[in-house]
Design a protein that fits this description.
Protein name: TMhelix containing protein
Structural class: mainly alpha
Largest sheet: none
Number of strands: 0
Organism: Blautia intestinihominis
Keywords: Membrane, Transmembrane, Transmembrane helix
Length: about 60
């Protein structure tokens, strides 16, 4: 795969990942769950974005 396509796919993956995290934070913030459960759900959404960043960094290293 050409380098340009890898960069484009990585940028799109990061944009969608950050967008999904923002939507998740908004949904969790407006829910009636207890504070501890909100914290756990927010952590899961945030880790998804961090994992995407790790994969993108590893793909672009090569």
């Amino acid at each position: 795969m050409k380098k340009e396509y890898k960069v484009l796919i990585c940028i799109l993956a990061l944009i969608f990942s950050i967008g999904a995290t923002c939507i998740g934070f908004g949904l969790i913030g407006s829910s009636s769950m207890k504070f501890g459960m909100k914290y756990v759900c927010d952590f899961v959404f945030l880790m998804q974005t961090i994992a995407t960043c790790w994969v993108v960094i590893e793909l672009l290293k090569k």
